[in-house]
Amino acid sequence: YFGDDGVTMRARVDNGLTSAAKYSVAGSNPVKAVAATQRDGAEVVIFNTEASNTLLCYKYSGAGTAGTLLWTASLGGVAKNAIAISPDASFVVATADNQVVYAIRISDGTTIWSVSIGDDEVQDSRPVISHQGHVFLGTKDASSFDAKLVKLHRDTGATIWTALGSSVEQVTASPLLADDGRVYVPYMNSSSAGRLACFMDNGSSVSAAEFDVATAGFNKESSPNMGHGGVLYLTGGTSLQAFYTKSPHLLRNAWSKWHKDQRNTAHVALSALSPVKVDLASRFNWVGIAPVGG
Fold first, then answer.
1. Closest of 180, 152, 186 to residue 168, by C-alpha
2. What are the pLDDT digits (tens) for 178-188?
3. What is the pTM of this model?
């Protein structure tokens, strides 16, 4: 699901080697955020456009259908970045440029809660939702340099804990949640240097940083990912970096990335995948795998 040439939300069907248009919704403004899930045997797509403070929710019962508008939800600002759907598909979380985080009920579009994180900016944040439905996101503060990684309660939006917050300018890339409770987060410090930190989520509290290491630059558009054996991949500047971690694998998803099975999620045996050789040296400025956190 994506906004293609700036004015249309499209979905495509992946047939392995090729893809075909599935359905689309045309609008008059660039599509900025799209998320999708399944409810009652139909696909539900939620998206926002650049010049609008409104989230739109459409339901599709089959390929080629025009879709049915289920609801619209008015926000106090524009959701300019990724929106996240809870694992049980009951609510969606969006961050808007009025510096407010919103949780919207998917069944009817009503606002469950809306919160601000102090005076920090949140419009660049890309939220991630845990299996319990709690929301993890970062903030930005270019004046007092106390940007944070924040965990919010799924039912109320109340802050459960915060991490970082000292000499940090922005935490705008998506946090990565691992299956063992660790949270990995790229950030930019007050000297505009990129770093990667790891924290253990203990439920109602968070550990001190298990590690906090320099990265080869910072890219606020980059979200980390994790492959087999807990290897974390991150782009920074013009480099693709890989880090060994203590985590076994990425947090398992309720909605997998590949035809609803475990492929491309780091939860499938290597023998089940067709080997693909990639010449990284010619395609990337490869930094190499660095062990972090012991």
1. 186
2. 989 999 999 98
3. 0.79
